[in-house]
Amino acid sequence: MKRIFLFISAVLSMGALSAQETVYPAPAQTITFALTNATVHIGNGQVIENGMVVVSGGKIVDVRPNAAIADVKIYDCKGKHIYPGLILSSSNLGLVEVGSVRATVDVNELGELNPNIRSLVAYNTDSKVTNTLRTNGILLANIVPQGGLISGSSSVVQLDAWNWEDAVVSADNGIHFRMPSLLNRRGGGRGFQFAQQPAGDPVKRGLEQIESVKAFFREAKAYYAESKHEATNLKFESVKGLFDQSKKLFVHCNIVKEMLIAIDFAKEFGFNVVLVGAADSWQIADLLKQNNIAVVLNQLHDLPVMADDDVDQPFKTPSILQKAGVLFSINDDDGNTRQRNLAFNAGTAAAYGLTREQALSAITLNAATILGVADKTGSIEKGKEANIVVADGDILDMSGNVISLAFIQGRQIELTDKHKQLSDRYKHKYGIK
């Protein structure tokens, strides 16, 4: 009886997922096409009213005011808006499917210092989360490992691929260091910890861990200074790109004293540092600009770090960084919405000081620049990959974020997901049109 029940459950599960399983990666673009009669948001602050975008061979070949064009496939986008594909600056997409099911979580590694771990090779292109992001305009993501002090390397992927080899846009673009908390408290704001903390002074323990990371990088520097190695050290080899700045050091931290230590890393080792989280970056915006430190704001829809901060401080932080000239991107790391609210985080920033085009840049071109892929994507410019979204209205607004067309590398992708399938299922059941 138990076997029969399991068999029936499996069949029902397969039936519920079958529609999504037929969403295959799109084939390479073979026909030149043009998106016409639309408002084109370049991603760098410029807007072309009644413009057109011409795509051939997976690349953008022309962006200009609307004009007659022959011998190409035409997508008439009258009344609609064209945007660059949105980019998640930091995500566990493809590494975590269901957080409460251990078998679907492949984001953490044992140990404290794991720079040699590559998130890319664990990336699951068949994740059911991916399609829910594409239908919200998100076409690229930076896949980041977790755990320990040095978690490993992240990679940028596009979200329409058979496997990680097909998906990769930029492999191993940065090493991620998770700064130990230097906040000596047990509750309130982002510092709240549900898990039982070890005995002793947490700040002292954090400073000791930070010193161990510095010692690791000093040893790595000495390792590179050797003309010949008696043995290959994989951990040291994996951070070599930090010293020649072919890779970036992404430092996950929030409060000022932690960010000052991150700046110290940049000065001592010559690293190209990016702050991830950086909730209190508004307090030292000028210092970040002076030291050429970029910022990934992980979550705008959140409480401030300190109880006496303005309750809307996370909403205002992007405009403060913008005015100071700090390069920053806006991200969404909400575990409940699984990054789908990226555009709406930017929309909130637009309501609190940014222009709408500046907010758009924060989830497109700025993100691409921070991730080192701005030569390939992030804006609708000639020569870049055709990662393009067509929305019925303002993509930063929930009422306008209705994606009618999306292209990755010029390939028109399918815009369906599990959410849409369930919606259609119950509309059909109750005769709703």
TrEMBL record:
Amidohydrolase-related domain residues: 342-396
InterPro entries the UniProt entry points to: Amidohydro-rel, Metal-dep_hydrolase_composite, Metal_Hydrolase, Metallo-dep_Hydrolase
Swiss-Prot/TrEMBL keywords: Hydrolase, Signal
Signal peptide range in chain numbering: 1-18
Superkingdom of origin organism: Bacteria
One of the record's GO molecular function terms: hydrolase activity, acting on carbon-nitrogen (but not peptide) bonds
Protein name, UniProt field: Imidazolonepropionase-like amidohydrolase
